[in-house]
């Protein structure tokens, strides 16, 4: 992270001693930092961040730097360190707020890319369970895309690309989970709608082979053999070595059918695009 450099351990320890002296007896928190330089307060914040079990403890020091020395280089560093400290503490909303303030205040600074990346991470790191509402996933995708597009030559863009793919895969996983739920309960049309989303909108994810196999299963259950055969043909064309193709092929052969494009449906159109090299 350019522009943000840790002070020496000696300086940090000295700052710790100086600031601790303000507390007086009884271990009370200091009420004021006016008698200390921006660097001394900043380094105490760094020390707390590196040594405390509670990353949020560092925030008050970085906040004081910004309050007491608002137009200094240390204040600029302190603001982005607030965002980082909040993120370490998993206080993601506060992290986003501090990161956005840095972007708004210092849009042309070399650390603006990192601030943007921290903002994106504050969404991304809240993506945990497939069953949760996916609003955060969409917000993470948008924020990661902005890092990639606005700062394409940075290390943050490279990291964002990897995380974007994982978040995108996460959305597809959600569609698959719901589709399997409907399929298991015999709600075939509802299941097909979910698997279709994966095939059309998330075709670059790892879930596409299974989505096509599930389409074969659902269409066969409805007696829509043309669609089932076409889904099997697409699966065979793109994922012949996948175990999902072996499963789909067995289902079709069990009905005396083969994987081939038939009829005129949305799947037939997808098949034509595959043959022309314009899909996947």
From TrEMBL:
NCBIfam families cross-referenced by the UniProt entry: OM_YfiO
Superkingdom assignment: Bacteria
Record's subcellular location: Cell outer membrane
Keyword Membrane assigned: yes
Keywords from the UniProt entry: Cell outer membrane, Lipoprotein, Membrane, Palmitate, Signal
Single Gene Ontology BP annotation: Gram-negative-bacterium-type cell outer membrane assembly
Keyword Transferase belongs to the record: no
HAMAP family named among the record's database cross-references: OM_assembly_BamD
Protein name (Swiss-Prot/TrEMBL): Outer membrane protein assembly factor BamD
A cellular-component GO term for this protein: Bam protein complex
SUPFAM superfamilies hit by this protein: TPR-like (SSF48452)
Subunit and partners: Part of the Bam complex.
The encoding gene: comL
One Pfam family in the UniProt entry: YfiO
Membrane topology category: Lipid-anchor
Signal peptide: 1-20
């Amino acid at each position: 992270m350019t522009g943000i450099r840790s002070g020496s351990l000696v300086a940090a320890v000295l700052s710790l001693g100086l600031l601790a002296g303000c507390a007086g007896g009884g271990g009370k928190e200091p009420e004021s930092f006016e008698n200390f330089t921006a660097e001394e307060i900043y380094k105490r914040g760094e020390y707390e961040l590196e040594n405390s079990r509670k990353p949020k403890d560092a925030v008050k020091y970085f906040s004081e730097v910004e309050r007491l020395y608002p137009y200094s280089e240390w204040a600029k560093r302190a603001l982005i360190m607030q965002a980082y400290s909040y993120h370490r503490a998993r206080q993601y909303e506060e992290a986003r707020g501090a990161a956005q303030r840095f972007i708004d205040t210092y849009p042309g600074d070399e650390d603006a890319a990192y601030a943007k990346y921290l903002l994106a991470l504050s969404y991304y790191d809240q993506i945990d369970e497939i069953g949760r509402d996916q609003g955060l996933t969409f917000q993470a995708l948008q924020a990661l895309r902005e890092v990639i597009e606005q700062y394409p030559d940075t290390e943050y863009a490279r990291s964002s690309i990897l995380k974007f793919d994982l978040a995108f895969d996460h959305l597809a996983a959600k569609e698959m989970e719901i589709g399997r739920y409907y399929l298991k309960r015999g709600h075939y049309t509802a299941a097909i709608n979910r698997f279709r989303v994966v095939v059309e909108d998330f075709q670059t994810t790892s879930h596409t082979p299974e989505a096509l196999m599930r389409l074969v299963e659902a269409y066969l259950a409805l007696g829509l053999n043309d669609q089932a055969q076409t889904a099997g043909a697409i699966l065979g064309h793109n994922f012949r070595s996948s175990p999902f193709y072996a499963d789909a092929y067995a289902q079709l052969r069990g009905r005396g059918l083969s994987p081939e494009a038939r009829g005129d449906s949305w799947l037939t159109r997808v098949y034509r695009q595959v043959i022309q090299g314009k899909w996947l």
